[in-house]
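dumping the sequnces here before i forget
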Amino acid sequence: MNSPVDKIKERLSIEEVVSSYIKLDRAGANLKARCPFHNEKTPSFFISPDRGSYYCFGCGASGDIFTFVEEFEGLDFKGALKLLADRAGIPLEPYSKEAKENKSEKEKLYEAMEEATLYFENNLKESKEVSEYLKLRGLNDKSIKDFKVGFAILDWRLLYSHLKTKGFSDTEIERAGLAKKPDDASKAMYDRFRGRIMFPIADSSGRIVAFSGRIFKNDGKSAKYLNSPETPIFSKNAVLYGIDKAKESIRKNNFSILVEGQMDLILSHQAGYRNTVATSGTALSDSTVSKENVVSNLGLIRRLSENLVLAFDADKAGANATIRAGKIALSLGMDVKVVEMPEGVDPADLIGKSGADAWKESIKNSKHIIEFLLNKALRNSNGDMRKTGREIKGVVLPFVDALSSSIEKMHFIRLISDKSGVQQDALQDDLKKIEQELKYEKEEIKEAGEASAKVYRRDYIERKLLGIALWQQSLIKPTVDFEIIFNKLGEVFKKYEDIRQDLIFEAEVFYSNNENLEKSIREMFLNLEEENINEEISKKMLELRKANDESGKKILQEINELNKRKEDIKNSRLKK
Ligand SMILES: [Zn+2]
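..and the predicted 3d for all of it:
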């Protein structure tokens, strides 16, 4: 029996898959690279073509092409399976009869989104007025088709009724975020999106997970944009609009362009910049979301390229959120540039009115975010030296502080001094004060960057183990003692109640021909223990910072013991 996983692994080597994301160097029989899952300067990420696996000595990330794609692209197993199957040219059929009948909730929600997208697309084809409007804004037919732009007619329950005729239940339609229940329960459900141009948002494997709807005729009451709520398949911090179409080009060109709106994004792609993603409808467009969310939202584009170009209408409130994202990107070690747009003009206007060349020119002329902010501060203060000093301290220096390299810091202090006439010494003094004030914020971002990778790995192992136990439990003749796994995992069970069927599917696809299942399980528990110890150590390190001599000694001893336990685990692996 040949599972799709085996077939895919036969066709795609780990070298081929991983090198399509990051640069690999030879290291004897193996390959090495800078780890995409943690920040490092010297490579500790190794790939073994023989075994078809990778391992990072820095952070412990390990696995095969599937786990790599999952982790790199921020996808679940099915998403990675779809992506790799497409790439290998292997058609996917539902794995077993049982899996076909027991489609998971998520599976049904994806189908509902797919059906809604088709429905909106058909509406658009029939609505001349909307099509004409889109053309007037500069969108061509190909872009409308590629991005599956659609239209939600201004009516109460057209989509709802359509989905009902297609066999979706009220709960599914509601859980997909497509319709709402009225307060008065005796009344029928109604569509969330009405009278809006619809832009589907896809995850990085191309599955539609949400919509962003732009009002077509402004009635003065409704919001200009309406986005899908968070649903079991859509989390605002995990997706960027356009990422599925942009990722190849981001990697190839080694930079990404971040715009605000859907129109900006589509027109930028149309103008030949396929490496463009948009914040619209995601966590990045919201100035109130936590830094962790911004970090995780930037995650994929950062793994693809460390160079980021921001392009937005400088007058809009959204610009503040984008600037904030820029600062966080800077703190994460990314190189951030800003396109200087004429006032009151957004990329869509520029491309629509002045054409692709004007857009190309603007991107070429983009400035480092610090220089951009400096120019703005100088314009605002209009030659008034006291005002200049205040603006630089308040707006520009915090961004200099966010830089991680001191050489770069020096470079910008010099630049600011040259352009503004403020003495370098004075700037250095102010920078020192800011360093103190923003110390906490910077640590927070750094930790968020590290935590987002770490937490994910532990969750990942837990999910795999739980999947194996659930799958084995469903078999007439289980081959391993699933009760032991359940017991060891404890409370974890509750967290994944919603995706039970998915976990069973994943385990079945992955392990049904595995002769060494027992061994794999043992290895996963060891990994899990290591993760827990690492987490424990990080916590103790934080405590250590605040500790006095007496308590510090005790904490150090505890850290030593934890490190010893880690060594023991490593050694126990070598023995086998
Ligand atoms: Zn690593």
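DSSP finds 26 helices and 16 strands in the chain.
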